[in-house]
Design a protein that fits this description.
Layout (H helix, E strand, L loop, with lengths): L2 H8 L3 H4 L8 E3 L9 H8 L7 E5 L18 E5 L4 H8 L3 E3 L7 H9 L2 E8 L7 E3 L7 H6 L1 E8 L13 E3 L5 E4 L16 H11 L7 E4 L3 H11 L7 E7 L1 H8 L15 E6 L3 H7 L5 E3 L2 H4 L2 H5 L4 E6 L2 E3 L4 E2 L2 E2 L2 E2 L6 H10 L4 E5 L3 E3 L5 E3 L1 E2 L17 E4 L2 E4 L5 H10 L6 H11 L9
Helix pairs in contact: 7-8, 8-9, 14-15
Length: 447
């Protein structure tokens, strides 16, 4: 049977495709911008006949139709590998829960621990002439999901870019059980943010000054990493490379500015390697059929041993809070999950092991509460319930608008002093007093 004939045989409506889902099933729902939409709406219609259906996914860029009803929690539960704003809201409503992980291990979770998925469904690019459906900018761990799934449904969307890669970036029609043609919705977007703030610019300027020509970049999501990317695009840097978890708009700007060649990369020379991408339409258009980019599974992109072999690896990420020991919380506000661990620890560790490598965690010195009160992001200890994303032994460079501090090789009292020196001046005396109580402040430091 030819591919086109097989396609016709497997083509069904979304309503027909989701009939395979049963109460009690585990359903993997794609990843980020390729989360299914027509299939989501079809499942929402079945809410009254389904109970305890457990969904897995992450970084939702649009609300899910399945969870629109007030009683949705009696029928469905969402389990997220990494939180977006929509998922944070769902958590607050008791509809969603976070699944802790080191992102590099996720394909292994499916192959070794989970080992069984009842139904997998996700959006894909249209089938190519060889019978393959490309995962688009969401390769991440989808091949591993498909390996252990009993039933695989693909939702074809002409707006999903064809993300070229080395391996595990597509699924063949012979492995697919059902094909649904959705309404070709535009992919969800994660805006790069507005104009960088003065704080963003001050942090970015310090980091860019530390980046050598030929460095290989990893940028996390958020305003500060994007501000760094914008400054790199305007800099005199050259022959930069990319090996990252998430491909973001900033990389498009740096590429179009002619700063990225990948000529100095130890591996995947000339390629911009990434596990998934999310941003604006500018990014999706850039990814589509671009041979300069390499879509790969996250156990390849985030592998610490692999990252460590890339010379001058520069990792740039955000944080929520940091304590005087150098412990970094990048994912929760106390017990409230607001993000996820993602691959931050993978890159923090890999960058330190890289020849000439550096990891930077960016943070504004303060944040302002809804009532207008300013709170220091550098605190004596992390708030109760806060998650330690990067341990004090792993943290390297911490950067605020007031300076940069390297944690490597410092005793606890040295760390406290270094971090207080880059805290907001209004909070330094208070931090010193707390450090004294904690036994990590030397009297000789007072001057």
């Amino acid at each position: 049977m030819g591919f086109e004939a097989e396609y016709s045989k497997k083509l069904v409506s979304a309503d027909e495709a989701v009939k395979v889902v049963k109460s009690g099933d585990w359903v993997d729902f794609g990843w980020c911008v390729t989360t299914p939409e027509a299939l989501d709406k079809a499942l929402a219609k079945r809410i009254d006949e389904l109970y305890d259906v457990k969904f897995r996914g992450g970084i939702l860029t649009k609300p899910l139709a399945m969870f629109e009803r007030e009683d949705a929690g009696e029928h469905f539960v969402w389990n997220s590998w990494h939180m977006s704003g929509y998922e944070r809201k769902m958590c607050g409503q008791g509809l969603a829960y976070y699944m802790p992980l080191r992102y590099s291990e996720l394909p292994g979770y499916y192959r070794q621990q989970i080992r069984h998925v009842d139904v997998a469904m996700f959006q894909v690019a249209p089938m190519d002439k060889h019978g393959y459906f490309n995962f688009g900018p969401s390769a991440s761990h989808l091949a591993a999901v498909c390996e252990v799934a009993d039933h695989i449904i693909v939702e074809v969307n002409e707006n999903v870019p064809r993300a070229l890669g080395g391996f595990e970036e597509a699924i063949h029609i012979s492995q697919v059980d059902a094909i649904v043609e959705g309404g070709n919705p535009a992919l969800g977007e994660i805006p790069a943010g507005g104009e960088p703030t003065e704080v963003d610019k001050k942090v970015a300027e310090q980091i860019v000054a530390e980046i050598p020509n030929g460095a290989c970049l990893q940028l996390g999501i958020g305003g500060m990493p994007n501000a760094v990317g914008s400054l790199i695009a305007q800099s005199d840097l050259k022959d930069l490379g990319v090996h990252t978890e998430m491909y973001v708009d900033a990389f498009v700007d740096i590429s179009k500015a002619g700063k990225i060649t990948g000529a100095k990369k130890n591996i995947d020379k000339g390629k911009q390697t990434y596990a998934f991408g999310a941003g604006t339409k500018k990014l999706y258009d850039f990814i589509d059929d671009n041979p300069e980019l390499m879509s790969a599974p996250v156990n390849y992109t985030n592998d610490i041993a692999r990252v460590s072999t890339i010379d001058n690896f520069i990792s740039i990420n955000n944080a929520v809070g940091i304590d005087l020991y150098g412990q970094i919380n990048a994912e929760s506000a106390g017990t409230r999950q607001i993000s996820g661990a993602g691959g931050q620890l993978d890159f923090v560790m890999g960058a330190h092991l890289s020849k000439g490598g550096k990891s930077f965690v960016c943070i504004s010195s303060v944040f302002t509460k809804k009532d207008g009160t300013a709170v220091s992001r550098i605190s004596p200890t992390l708030a109760p319930g806060s998650i330690v994303t990067d341990t004090r032994a792993n943290s390297m460079y911490i950067v605020t608008e007031y300076g940069m501090a390297c944690m490597k090789g410092l005793a606890t009292w040295q760390r406290a002093e270094a971090l207080i020196n880059i805290a907001h001046p209004d909070f330094r005396d208070e931090l010193i007093a707390e450090a004294e109580k904690m036994g990590i402040w030397r009297q000789s430091n007072k001057r």
